[in-house]
TrEMBL record:
Cited SUPFAM superfamilies: Thiolase-like
Organism annotation: Triticum turgidum subsp. durum (Durum wheat)
Residue ranges of domain Chalcone/stilbene synthase N-terminal in the record: 13-109
The protein, known as: Chalcone synthase
GO biological process entries: polyketide biosynthetic process
Pfam family, one: Chal_sti_synt_N
Lineage: Eukaryota, Viridiplantae, Streptophyta, Embryophyta, Tracheophyta
Keywords annotated in UniProt: Acyltransferase, Transferase
Domain Chalcone/stilbene synthase C-terminal intervals: 168-254
InterPro entries: Chalcone/stilbene_synt_C, Chalcone/stilbene_synt_N, Polyketide_synthase_type-III, Thiolase-like
Amino acid sequence: MGSCGTSGGMAGRRHAAMLGIGTANPTGVLVPQDVFAENLFRVTNSDHLPELKEKLRRICEKSGIERRHFHLTEETLAAHPELFDRELPSLDTRVDMTADAVPKLAQTEHALGMRVSGGGVDFHLAIQVPTLVGQNVEQCLLDAFRSAIVDDDDGGAAPPPSPCSGNGNGRWNDLFWAVHPGGRPILDNINKVLMLEPEKLAASRHVLREYGNMSGATIVFVLDELRRGRSPLPEWGALLAFGPGITIEAMVLRCPR
């Protein structure tokens, strides 16, 4: 991200601009989603829990994800059982891995990964999350568009065109969309509430299918997918990201002409 502005007038005001997009994933292991449950339980010596494995397999089938990227290989896990056994101390191992990996980040983008240890971060998502997002997303978007200010042709300040018409019906299909794919139910609820055409969330669904939910970095992959798209984007768009709380962050985007 960067900012740009003019030398005269409102020198203190700057506009955020996307100057570049970088995406990378671990090159260690690429696991198809349909065999992920089987591989996970085998590698972690958990085949004695067949009911739990079957539950994970069903979750994988409905996730909308086709493959998963991992930094850790089976050889690494075999050498460090503390990474998946919660009864064993693993802090030193994780720190050593991080210390070894960080200097390599400057050497090649392909070495960059979001996580360097298996099981290092746990996410607990309530089943109500997709519904909560769907119930509140439209108001967050309306507030974002009402507060957004852009330069008009006369050098002054003006709001972007509102996606909300006079009778209150949203014209959300006039925009391009960059939505954090936190899961297929979240995207489905947003699609339903905003009555979006199927292709409007195609970039988010593609990233979810190819990479899964990579936490905060996922939205960058969605922006990159939009940039690579063959069809020209509308001038105006919306970005949606989600965090703990639950928090919805909405941003008005403008595609330069």
